[in-house]
Design brief:
Blueprint (H helix, E strand, L loop, with lengths): L2 E3 L1 H10 L3 H9 L3 E4 L3 E7 L2 E9 L4 E9 L2 H5 L4
Length: 80
């Protein structure tokens, strides 16, 4: 799968200390995928979650932004 990052995503990943490999791992093997207004994949890492916001284009996945959160329950709770 080809992955492209927007300039915004690159800047936010740099500011937040998120490596491209972590984003790729989250996209390849997410613990959960949320589909609200945009797609979000979530991966548990070191007691926190990595959230990658993205969209799918015809030829690639485009990463819009990425961030870490300590709110495990918010992103990993199962839907009833």
């Amino acid at each position: 799968m080809k992955i492209r990052c927007t300039f915004h995503a690159i800047e936010r990943m740099r500011q937040r200390g998120i490596k491209r490999e972590e984003v790729e791992d989250c996209l390849d093997d997410p613990d959960r995928i949320l589909e609200v207004e945009e797609l979000k994949c979530v991966k548990r890492l070191n007691g926190k979650v990595l959230v990658v916001v993205y969209r799918k284009d015809a030829d690639a996945v485009v990463v819009i932004t990425a961030f870490r959160s300590s709110k495990l329950h918010r992103y990993l709770q199962t839907a009833l």
